Amino acid sequence: MVAEKTYNPISGWFPLIMTIALFIAGPLLFISGAIGLGYPGGAGFVLRMILGVVLFATAFISLFGFMAIAPNQARALLLFGAYKGSVLKSGFFWVNPFFSKKRISLRVRNFETGSTHTPEQKSAEGKVVQKATRTSGRPSKVNDRDGNPIEISAVVVWRVVNTAEALFEVDDFEDFVQVQSESALRNLASRHPYDSHDHEVSLRGNPDDVCDQLETDIQERLDKAGVNVIEARISHLAYAPEIAAAMLQRQQAQAVVAARTKIVEGAVGMVEMALDQLAEQHIVELDDERRAAMVSNLLVVLCSDRHTQPVVNTGSLYT
Q: Given this model, what pLDDT does residue 29 score?
């Protein structure tokens, strides 16, 4: 594993002044030497011409040592394939002209799983022929823990924190982040059910816990690439179209059962309270048969999904 090293370059302003001076002094020495070749002592003028060429060549080569780094940008420096360090601060600098300078962004980035990124294409002259594009994310189809096909996608926010690992440990760290995030999302979806009613962690019922697990899973996969996952959130979650209608009916049935259960619990409590208060206040004395009839009538009134139509008894209680 390549360890990141911080390289501290010198400011580029003084080397810039020296380079400009060499660009001026080199041609002047060459021209003055060429003019003096017709005079006695021509060997000294030849040396002056050679010195002028050397100064001009030195100034030209030093131009390749200048670099300007914007905020949240970095440069990894290599000398004939050997890693020498990374410049992590912004500014105008000068380094060894023979360094290869690989640019890498330290800015926060995000993407949605299922999206496709097409890099920009340049011609032989360096002109951009086709700009970089990114398609909208398409949800991934995967089976949850219960075997139900679902569609799921997530948004991952990340940034590079180790330039050496990002450049040298993986082939293409951006593609690596996307592929590993997709794999972690599929693995997470297969470990949990879409929905649960027994207080078990589910994809729909516990979004915060699921997102925390997803962030941890992605981070474990991306540690070797020098990437830090800032946030991972599920952006789309639904049953697959082929079972969506059936699952909707099941959810509706479960909702109806849950509502009826709550209604029955409340009705039984109200009936119990009514019988207790009638007995405590001695309003009416009911035998077991009339008590059972009263309980039945109250439960019908309280549990019915339609308005009841009462029948008023104008006779005695037992007629």
A: 86
pLDDT band at 277, cuts 50/70/90? confident
In sequence order, what DSSP letters do the residues of 192-242 get, joined into one string? S-S--SSS---TTT-HHHHHHHHHHHHHHHHGGGTEEEEEEEEEEEEE-HH
State how far the Cα of 19 lies from the Cα of 58, in Å rounded to an integer: 8
Contacts of 12 (CB under 8 A, 6+ apart): 66, 67, 68, 91, 92, 93, 94
pLDDT for residue 291: 72
Give the SS3 label for residue 113: coil
Take residue 70 and report the two structure tokens written for it. Answer: 């914007």
Cβ-based neighbour number of residue 272 at 10 Å: 12
| Residue-wise burial string across 181-205, b where 16 or more C-beta atoms lie within 10 A, e elsewhere | bbebbeebbeebbbbbeeeeebbbb
The pair of structure tokens assigned to 210 is 């699921």
What sign results for the dihedral spanned by CA atoms 39, 42, 46, 47?
A: negative
- CA dist 178 → 2, 95, 257, 302, 318 (Å): 22, 34, 42, 56, 79
CA-CA distances (angstroms) from residue 58 to 10, 44, 77, 105, 215?
Answer: 18, 21, 21, 31, 51
Rounded Cα distance between 91 and 87, Å, is 10
Residue 199: what residue type? H
Average pLDDT value over all residues in the chain? 82
pLDDT band with cut points at 50, 70 and 90 for residue 59: very high
Q: Is the pLDDT of residue 102 over 70?
A: yes
Could you count the other beta carbons within 10 Å of the beta carbon of residue 124? 5
Average pLDDT over residues 174-195: 89
Task: List, as one string, the DSSP characters of 61-93.
Answer: HHGGGEEEE-TTEEEEEEETTEEEEEE-S-EEE
